[in-house]
Amino acid sequence: MLMKKTKPKVALIGSGYWGSIIKKYISSYFELKYVADSNFDKSIIWKDEEVSAVIIATPIETHYQITKEALINNKHVLVEKPIALKYDESIELREIAKSKELKICVEYTQTFSPSIIQCVTTAKELEGPLYIEMSVKHLGRFMTCDVYWLLASHQLSILDMVCNLDEFSFYNEDHLFHNGLCTTGTVYFNNNEKKIKGRIDISTNFPGKEVMINFYGDNATIQYNPLAKNSVRTTYYDKKYKSLPSALTINEIINDYDENHNLEHSIRYFHDVMLNARKQNIDRAVRITRTLEMFAKSITL
Question: Residue ranges of the alpha helices (H) in the chain?
Answer without folding.
Answer: 17-26, 43-47, 63-72, 87-99, 114-125, 147, 153-162, 245-248, 262-274, 282-292
